[in-house]
Amino acid sequence: MAPPRRPQILIASDLKSGDVVFLGASGWERDHRLARVAHDATEAAAFEAFGKNEIEKNHVVDMYLAEVEIGPGGVPTPLHYREKMRVMGPSVRRDLGKQAEWASSEAAGEAI
Amino acid sequence: MALISDGAFVEDSWRRLADEEAIPKSGKIIVTLPRLDAALAARGPDAPLGVIAPNTTDPELLRKSLSKLSLIAIQFPSFTDGRGFSLASLLRRAGFKGELRASGRVVADQYLHALGCGFDTIEIPDDLAQRHVEEHWRNALRARSLSYQRCPRGAGSILEQRRKGAL
Amino acid sequence: MGFLRSCGRGDMTAHDPNLPARPNAATTYLYDAYDRAFVRERVAEFRDQVQRRLSGGLTEDEFRPFRLMNGLYLQLHAYMLRVAIPYGTLTARQMRQLAFIADRWDKGYGHFTTRQNVQYNWPQLVDVPEILDALADVDMHAIQTSGNCIRNVTADQFAAVAADEIEDPRPTTEFLRQWSSAHSEFSFLPRKFKIAVTGAEHDRAAIKVHDIGLRIVKNGQGEIGYEVLVGGGLGRSPFIGKTIREFVPRADLLAYLEAIMRVYNRFGRRDNKYKARIKILVHETGIDEIRSQVEKEFASMDLTPFSYDAQEFARVAAFFADPPYESLPKTSAALEQAKRENADFSNFVDVNVSPHKIDGYAIVTVSLKPIGGIPGDATSDQMRVLADASEKFGFGELRVSHEQNIVLPHVKKDDLFALWRMLDDFGLATANAGLISDIIACPGLDYCALATARSIPIAQAISRRFASLERQREIGKLGVKISGCINACGHHHVGAIGILGLEKKGEESYQITVGGDPTLKASIGQRLGPGLRAEEVPDVIEHLIQFYLAERLKDESFIETWRRLGHERFKELARREGEDGSDI
Questions:
Q1: Fold classified for B2-166
Q2: In the complex, which subunits touch B with 3 or more CB pairs below 8 angstroms?
Q3: What's the CA gap between A2 and C50, in Å, rounded?
Q4: Domain boundaries in chain B?
Q5: What CA–CA distance (Å, rounded) separates A18 from C198?
Q6: C123 vs chain A: nearest CA distance in angstroms?
Q7: Which of C34, C48, C59 sits opposite B162 (nearest CB)?
Q8: Strand partners, C497
């Protein structure tokens, strides 16, 4: 039996926009909180196979698996600080990147 | 392999001789570099001979044979390995007048680079030919109407145009 | 002749606002029809390459070198487009277009780099052909700002206006730019290739840490030529360049450079990306053997095709002739009065204004390093203000410096106060040029896919710690340079204080070096001690500064004190801190 491994998500760059994308329930998501989590080697291999196929179809480039920890509600958060940067945006410009989009969508959500 | 000349896929009138094969007296054959001396000795004086050389070949090794060679194919193991461009330039400088062929992994976007260094033809494996179709090679010929450098062939250099204009 | 206007504390300039706007007489090369056609064709070629990439005609591996040769990287969050600013010289019109591009296709700002280029951090691949067209509209491009080819040739940001100059390096640089563009033979080199040119006694172009460095010199007969250095570079293994020839006559320059490029293209290592620069070839083969190979190649070349170069060089050089300077007195009464009346302005003049070769004029450094800000970034509004300022006060010409600042190279002393007022309104008047808060920092892990740690927050923290301009002036000239990885784009090796961001045990870790120097006295910084956490860095810098202030002899700069005392004294300082963890 394969040794247990840390949960992982699949990260890639969208070819047309350069945006960071994550393998979600049915295709690529721009929000890492919607990323599917691979819990074992079989699932991880399936993720990579999908990613490879997407590369061949010229949708994404540079795909790889990144380790995450699972938080409340099953939301994955990358372990390494580099991937943490990728899911958020520049730490010195909180008004730019994905972090800004959530901030505004959360604010909108609060307003409802 | 597919052969490109003047922006089109053409039939190759040359044949690559396998290393195990005996050297025929006539016919347009290309031998590998280690067999060059033997081929020169074995062939008739008017039998066209070609050689395929690694891109690291010292041009001095070929110097004495240049007048007897009709074709030199320079290998491109990877399209990012630009050594073949310098080797071609040096062979032209040494006086080679025959067909210079860039052979291997060369993409259409390098067509003008190759021509600018003195290559005549490009030979690519089938997997590249699938994606680098004839239209791309034809278009590539027109990618730069003029070059800033002093190229030996092609549409000419910007420097030359300016000089003519200044006269 | 200037005259004072007594309109309160407002306009203390002698410039008469009723005169028509100064004609735009920027001293820079003007494209002819051939140059324009070249750039347009390049855009069309890239447009086609993008299409083929999207449809699968080109794989990513095949597309990448051509994408890079058009300045486009794929970074941490998005693509990044690096636009060339040849020899760091821009017209007001070009700067406005950079602002337009930032607003239209990016997020309203750009980043000026240590190689005099500008970077956009958020373009989409599908928009890049349009962006390149917008650049072509103003005779700009992103050609060869990346890739294994000859990159943007850089020069001295004070070219043509500094008093210590033998010759303006920019005509040479423009000449090299054209020669190196889409070079048939040298576009698939073992690795990137960077050339820099200096024409002055003080090297502001860091030629000793470039693959080829050129120093304009005069021989015994008064002829202009070039000292050619080869094999300098920073990155993983920093090297100082070595002289390959003391004097190459101008007529032979391009041929000689081709000889060097041919030897490098043929023999540079291709087996290991980290050993592929010419500095490794020179180091492993030896400068004498390399020189011998280059001279042999040069001697075998047919120089006839290069014989037209003299005429072409003269044609290019004519564009860089002096602008219509007015005949002015050396001293400006208006300036002196404004300095007496406004301490902040006086400070700005002392720090950010440099002497000009023409009486009555000055060189102004506009700092893109506001206290606590992101080094080298400018908003599109700021770009437009800079364009306006250059037209109002400087023949419509701007420069980008290696320190990631903007230079207005031809400002009348009479106009300095009005210019300062204009800059101040837009946060562009920080009086810190060359001081400790004028930090050079690469984008680092906040943006860059190659980075191992963030660099910008470190720069911000140091900047805030030393915010007091009075204190900064007391410390004097000091170059702090920060790189977010060993590729050293922040040039940390040649910082008087250098900081390198790495990873240690899953955390960002910072190594400090001391004693680097980018000038002709080039030296590589030496390590101070083990890596620090981000929070520890400002304290350690503080202690280095305090030590320097306590030990320095009159007028000694930081680097001079370091040279006199020796690195061990500084290392000891860091060691003592580590032992008991308390302040010294």
A1: TIM Barrel (3.20.20)
A2: C
A3: 43
A4: 2-166
A5: 38
A6: 8
A7: C34
A8: C480, C514
Model-level ipTM above the cut of 0.95: yes
pLDDT at B136 > cutoff 90: yes
- Residue-wise pLDDT for B76-124, tens only, equals 999 999 999 999 999 999 999 999 999 999 999 999 999 999 999 999 9
Whether B134 contacts chain C with CB within 8 A: no
Query: Does domain C170-318 correspond to CATH entry 3.30.413.10?
Result: yes
Domains in chain A: boundaries: 8-111
Identify whether the C-beta of residue C465 lies closer than 8 Å to the C-beta of residue C538. yes
Q: Taking the CA atoms of chain A, what radius of gyration do you get in angstroms?
A: 15
Query: What amino acid occupies position B24?
Result: P
CB-CB neighbors (< 8 A) of C188 in chain B: 79-82, 85, 110, 113
Name the CATH topology of C33-136.
Answer: Sulfite Reductase Hemoprotein; domain 2 (3.90.480)
Q: What is the pLDDT of residue C196?
A: 97
Q: For C107-175, give the DSSP string.
A: SSEEEE-TTS-EEES---GGGHHHHHHHHHTTT-B-TTSSSSSB---B--TTTTT-TTBSS-SHHHHHH
Burial class (CB in 10 A: 0-12, 13-18, 19+), B93: middle
Question: Would you call C506 and A80 a contact, using CB atoms and an 8 Å cutoff?
Answer: yes
Closest-CA distance of chain C to residue A65, Å: 15
CATH 3.90.480.20 occupies which residues in chain C? Answer: 33-136
Contact B82 C265 (CB under 8 A): yes
Residue of C nearest to B158 (CA): C34
Q: Say how far apart CA C156 and CA C33 lie, in whole Å.
A: 28
* A19/C74 Cβ within 8 A: no
Each residue's pLDDT tens digit, A12-67 = 999 999 999 999 999 999 999 999 999 999 999 999 999 999 999 999 999 999 99
Entry pTM: 0.94
- Contact present, C290 and C228 (Cβ < 8 Å): no
Distances (CA, A) of B76 to B56, C209, C266: 10, 32, 13
Contacts of C262 in chain B (CB under 8 A): 86, 89-90
Q: How many CB atoms sit inside 10 A of residue C237's CB? A: 16
Q: With a cut of 70, which residues of chain C have pLDDT below it?
A: 1-24, 576-584
Nearest-by-Cβ selection for B109 from C56, C66, C178: C66
CATH superfamily of C440-580: Sulfite Reductase Hemoprotein, domain 1 (3.30.413.10)
Q: Among C160, C195, C155, C156, which residue's Cα sits nearest to residue C179?
A: C195
Whether residue B147 lies within 8 A of chain C, CB to CB, comes out as: yes
| CB-based touch A/B (3+ pairs, under 8 A) | no
